[in-house]
Design a protein that fits this description.
The complex is a heterodimer of chains A (253) and B (404). Chain A has a single domain, classed as 3-Layer(aba) Sandwich (Rossmann fold). Helix content of chain A is 37%, strand content 26%. Chain A contains 8 helices and 10 strands. In chain A, the strands form 2 sheets. A 6-stranded mixed beta sheet of chain A has the order 6-7-8-3-9-10, sandwiched between helices. In chain A, helix 4 crosses helix 5 and helix 5 runs parallel beside helix 6. Chain A is globular and about 60 Å long. The termini of chain A are far apart. In chain A, 45% of the residues are buried. Chain B has 404 residues and is an alpha+beta fold. In chain B, the strands form 3 sheets. Chain B has a 6-stranded mixed barrel. In chain B, strands 2-3 form a two-stranded antiparallel ribbon. Chain B has a two-stranded antiparallel ribbon with strand order 4-12. In chain B, helix 2 runs antiparallel to helix 12, helix 3 packs across helix 8 and helix 9 packs across helix 11. Chain B is elongated. Classes of the chains: A alpha/beta (253), B alpha+beta (404). At the A-B interface, helix 2 and helix 3 of A face helix 10, helix 11 and helix 13 of B.
């Protein structure tokens, strides 16, 4: 079984007019199946570029990027689209749900573009199952405007899962959420990881990164450190602690 | 395909007012096409009806020639068809069921204390057959009456009403034409207005011999009506008459005819030439309006693509191919223009009868024009929707996702 992600001397250079920006300057990184990786770094460190390439939204300028053993540098625009559809799930900081479209329809979106086609009845059933999985079975017909931030992010996770991807990519998934909701989302990620899903997420927050199994830190387009998480946080445990604290605050008040 | 259409419909519903305003150009254009073409076909149908009302398989031989030597002249200026010409046609031309000359004159006609200035046509006993003109009561005059120049006549519906009153059977009464008493033997059914819009029923039909001897003193006819025995016989009869008259009028080869033999189709074409020009003109302006409508659609689709850049980014990120996005926006544009086309057709169906009602302008909506209008509106959607759709399909997913 090949590694889920394999970057070999991956470089990316952007050219805007006369100025050349070397966003990523040679990264070697391997992510095996079942890993849960946090990528950290300040803005301009190249982590977004790395995510875009791993997410098959972009191609490397030089070096190789293999997703599930497939070199994406050699794929056409359509082949990249198909690869995203089949093997990747995206979760964004801003949720990126379609407005005025129900949760169920949002989750169905990736299945609309699946090849071969998926029957409508199966689409409905799979979308419903994905929403159940993230705990939104009761709100399938709600539009994003009627859902809280945490609920919207759950819909986005359900959408990312619905085509049964090999890899789940999350770009600052807790960036727009409060502490409690963030932990809940990390709980969902940990549960998925326990079931065998490979996850890679970008985050600014060190405490959120502690829920992952491995932390990769980037700076100036290069990997500065790559370490396993020694004292990993458990979302269920942390949620319980948080509740206890809140109760204590209420008691003293 | 169904899913694509559903998404397109949702996008249109999301902004009803804007969608409607976008469609307005197409609605106006298509309505103009429908109404314009309906005016053209209506006028043509009216002309055809009147010409068909002249009689079946009818040929008209007229004095003079409209296009003598390439120069257009008035037709029938000097009557030059003689009684002998008429007899020759009746004797020598085959496949003919009825032949009648027409010697026209106008005269003051009186009955009792009523009088009227009407057209008096001198015709043969076969005239009512040739013109398919049934009698309401009484009888047609006979060949013997024609030979004897009898003082009898058939009376048209309008003349009968003027002289004898509504619904009164005038058969057996007498009328004085230029003070000569004529007995009415037959009452003609109403025929309605003719191809020039004149009232065909304000008429007296008299044996042509009577008109020539007693009323006008003419010796030549302006026109002769010939009825062929079948539609297939029209062309050969036309040829025979032409050949016969050229010989009788001693027209040498290479010289133009001094008469015209027209069938109904040719007569109809003559009157419809103007209608066709009108139809083309209206079509031209409707076409301009459709192009403007199409540009309106393109404009709004470009705005829509910009507004929904993020949505496009999301779709691309979850695996939509460029083609999927292209189809989505294209079907939206086509749906807009086809909906506009449908509404335009509805407006046309409403407007055309209104036009007839208000201005007495005959209109007839043909199925062909509806199908054409619908196809054109779909085509406009494809043409003017393609550029915005292509723009959407070629967006870079990363830029599109980042778009604020």
């Amino acid at each position: 079984m090949p590694a889920v992600i394999q970057l070999q001397d991956f470089q990316k250079t952007y050219r805007t007019g006369e100025i050349e920006v070397r966003a990523v300057r040679g990264v070697n990184l391997t992510v095996e199946a079942g890993e849960f990786v946090a990528i950290m770094g300040s803005s301009g460190s190249g982590k977004s570029t790395l995510m875009n390439t791993v997410g098959c939204l972009d191609r490397p300028s030089s070096g190789k990027c293999l997703i599930d053993g497939v070199d994406i540098g050699s794929l056409s625009r359509n082949e990249l689209a198909d690869l995203r559809n089949r093997k990747l799930g995206f979760v964004f900081q801003g949720f990126n749900l379609l407005a005025r479209t129900t949760a169920l329809e949002n989750v169905q979106l990736p299945m609309l573009y699946a090849r071969p086609k998926i029957a409508i009845s199966e689409q409905n059933q799979r979308a419903a199952a994905a929403l159940e999985l993230v705990g939104l079975g009761q709100r399938m017909d709600h539009t994003p405007s009627r859902l809280s931030g945490g609920q919207q992010q759950r819909v986005a996770i359900a959408r990312a899962l619905v085509n049964r991807p090999t890899l789940l990519l999350a770009d600052e998934p807790t960036g727009n959420l409060d502490t409690r909701t963030s932990i809940e989302i990390m709980g969902i990620f940990q549960k998925l990881n326990d079931q065998g899903m490979t996850l890679v997420m970008v985050t600014h927050e060190l405490d959120i990164a502690q829920y992952c199994k491995r932390i990769v830190v980037m700076r100036d387009g290069l990997v500065r450190s790559d370490t396993p998480v020694s004292q990993r946080l458990d979302a269920v445990e942390e949620l319980r602690k948080l509740e206890a604290e809140q109760q204590a605050v209420q008691l003293t008040a | 395909m169904f899913a694509t259409l559903r998404i397109a419909l949702m996008a249109i519903r999301r902004n009803v007012l804007r969608s409607f305003l976008t469609m307005l150009g197409i609605i106006v254009g298509i309505a103009a096409v429908i109404v314009g073409v309906s005016m053209g076909t209506g006028a043509k149908a009216e002309v055809d009806k009147r010409i068909a009302g002249m009689g079946q398989n009818l040929l008209t031989v007229m004095s003079g020639n409209m296009t003598r030597g390439g120069v257009r002249g008035g037709f029938g200026m000097a009557p030059n068809l003689s009684v002998e010409d008429f007899d020759a046609i009746r004797r020598e031309v085959s496949q003919v069921t009825a032949v009648s000359p027409e010697a026209r004159t106008s005269a003051q006609v009186a009955a009792g204390n009523q009088n009227s200035f009407v057209q008096v046509s001198g015709v043969s006993d076969e005239y009512v057959t040739a013109r398919s003109w049934p009698l309401r009561s009484g009888e047609n005059f006979t060949a013997a009456d024609v030979r004897n120049a009898s003082k009898i006549c058939l009376i048209g519906a309008t003349t009968a009403k003027t002289l004898f009153g509504e619904g009164v059977d005038p058969v057996g009464q007498a009328v004085r034409i230029k003070n000569a008493p004529f007995t009415i033997v037959g009452w003609l059914e109403a025929k309605g207005s003719g191809s020039f819009g004149q009232d065909q029923d304000d008429i007296l039909l008299v044996p042509y011999t009577s008109v020539m001897k007693r009323l006008s003193g003419d010796t030549k006819f302006r026109s002769v009506f010939v009825q062929a025995d079948s539609p297939d016989a029209i062309a050969p009869v036309q040829e025979q008459i032409t050949e016969l008259l050229r010989r009788r009028h001693k027209i040498s080869d290479g010289k133009d005819d001094d008469f015209m033999v027209r069938n109904q189709q040719e007569t109809s074409d003559f009157f419809n030439a103007n209608n066709r020009i009108m139809t083309v003109l209206i079509g031209f302006f409707a076409g301009i309006s459709l192009v403007v409508g199409g540009i309106g659609i393109m404009n709004i689709m470009l705005v829509s693509v910009t507004e929904r850049t993020r949505e496009i980014g999301i779709r691309l990120a979850v695996g939509a191919r460029g083609r999927d996005v292209l189809l989505q926006f294209l079907s939206e544009a086509v749906l807009l223009s086809v909906l506009g086309g449908g509404l335009g057709i509805a407006v046309g169906y409403w407007l055309a009868p209104l036009l007839t009602q208000l201005f007495q302008f005959p209109t007839l909506i043909s199925e062909a024009s509806v199908i054409l209008a619908f196809t054109v509106s779909a085509f406009i959607g494809i043409v003017f929707g393609f550029f915005p759709a292509l723009k959407a399909a070629n967006l870079d997913p990363i830029d599109a996702l980042r778009y604020e």
